[in-house]
Amino acid sequence: MSVVPEATASGTAPTAQPDTSLAAPLWWRRSPHLHEQAIARAARPDYPAWLAHVKPAAACTRPIRLAGTMTTVEAATGRLLAERHTADMPDGVIYKPCGNRRASVCPSCSKLYQNDAYQIVRTGLAGGKGVPEQVAEHPAVFPTFTAPSFGQVHTRVVKRHTCTRRIDCDCRPEPCHARRDLTVCDHGTRLVCFARHDKDAPLLGTPLCRDCYDYDAHAVWNLMSGELWRRTTIAVGRYLHRLARQRGIADVHVTSASTDGTTRTRRRPPVRVEFDKGSEMQRRAAVHFHAIFRLDGPDPDAITPPPSGFDAHDLKAAVDHAARTVTFTTDPHPAKPDGWRIGWGDQVLTKVITTDGRGSGEISMGQVAGYLAKYATKSTDVTGHVSSRLTLDTIDLYADAQGSHTERLVAACWRLGRARWTCPACHQRSTRQPCPTCAARGREALEQVPEASPYRRLQRWAHMLGFGGHFLTKSRRYSITFAVLRSGRVEFRRAQTAGPEQTEAGEQPTTLVVNFLQFVGAGWHTTADALLANTSAQMAREHAETARQYLTTLAA
């Protein structure tokens, strides 16, 4: 396959026309050898058409296969203009990228997801894509919220870095848990570790004593971290409102239009806090948040600058105050009638962001955007636990009350959020009270969690170790959304393949494309198809990078 220059910078590259006179034997298509299957596919006369057909999903590891009909109708009258069935296309299906954000599942789709996340974070700090550029002058901070301690774990602490790049850090860490008294817990485990762990040490994040570790509190904290974050954002806004009153900055009256066409005037604080939050799973399997807080004016319909009496240090003080004071107690649970106390840990670090290039911040806008966007491709991989949603048939594969650190945490999630009665002796699950086996033996079943209890979500998110939130959340007016970026990408590709719409600005298109497609499978038909598609996509990326470097050099 040879790369031919083309306009697009993604997908597959066009290939040379195959010589049909040298077509491979038919039995090569059924050969167990990968290279013979690839040659058989490349030697077919319809290979160029197949390669162009799979171009949108060529780099995807597990593309979605859709089958059905695609019709073109007239927008004004609904008259059918054209109709095409996927049976007339190569392989009889349409290939669509899976769109998975995990790098361990699909590197290509996760990279696109990461780029979109970078644009969302960056536009909220620098403007663009519909966000006014004046937003770069608004005060902004970058706090990190961590979970409290649930037990002593193996750590790697470097007190003084002498390296220039933290990614390739080779600085000498401190001893993990060095003690002179050699403390022994109630279970007979010595709570001491003199090792200087490497960055990839398997012991990092695991408890010194698993029997002393509070797995129930850990699972509940992961579950309630979203509610803790919601209360924290409210506390930040209230702190700034009190600060405005102390400085004599009066509230403002904002007039807004409601859905029924009427206008309403409301009294609002003189400042408004917008945020963007990224979630990261630590090695100890506790989620912590990296966030951006930005100060805006009180207008709910537009992004306006805050009053002149506020700066980034006031916002930093508000975030630090909320991190220290916001706590709450969960609802009663059969395993803990008093509930669990939920609050942030002691390691909360807040940095001022330099967004306009002229401030004296501690971190730049580009560093923050790249730091948050990289978590778009991560999940629970760092903990060593990777699974899909767990069921009664698969829970025993990943949960073990006497197993590893993550297995015990998954078991705690499943036990605390049980939706069925469970026998305490034989662990038989049942939907009736008590368990049929225990009823014959006179034993009582464990108490069931109520249907409306938030703890029921622990079983649903046991594969995420109790955390059920999204990796990136933001306030409504912080910046653009993923949907805006994806729709713009779709319009660009349509204009690139079919040409721009021959309509005036603001007018509706004269034709509509209506698809009647259904899911028929996932993944490539053969390993050879995946090899050819991914190889062509890699060649196209290399060609695009070479062209980009050439244009940069030419411009310089």
Report how far apart the termini are: 33 Å
Strand proportion:
15-25%
- Shape by Cα distribution: globular
The side-by-side strand order for the widest beta sheet comes to 12-11-4-8-7-15
What's the SSE pattern?
A: HHEEEHEHEEEEHEEEEHHHEEHHEHEH
Oligomer: single chain
Low-confidence regions: 1-22, 430-434, 442-446
Tell me about the biggest sheet? Answer: 6 strands, mixed
Please state the structural category.
alpha+beta
Q: What do the pLDDT scores average to?
A: 82
| Helix proportion range | 25-40%
Q: Helix segment count?
A: 12
How many E strands?
16
- Radius of gyration over all CA atoms, rounded: 29 Å
Could you please describe the fold and organization of this structure?
There is one protein chain. By secondary structure, the chain is an alpha+beta fold. It is 29% helix and 16% strand. The protein has twelve helices and 16 strands. The strands form five sheets. A six-stranded mixed beta sheet has the order 12-11-4-8-7-15, sandwiched between helices. Strands 1, 2, 3 and 16 form a four-stranded antiparallel beta sheet that branches. A two-stranded antiparallel sheet has the order 5-6.
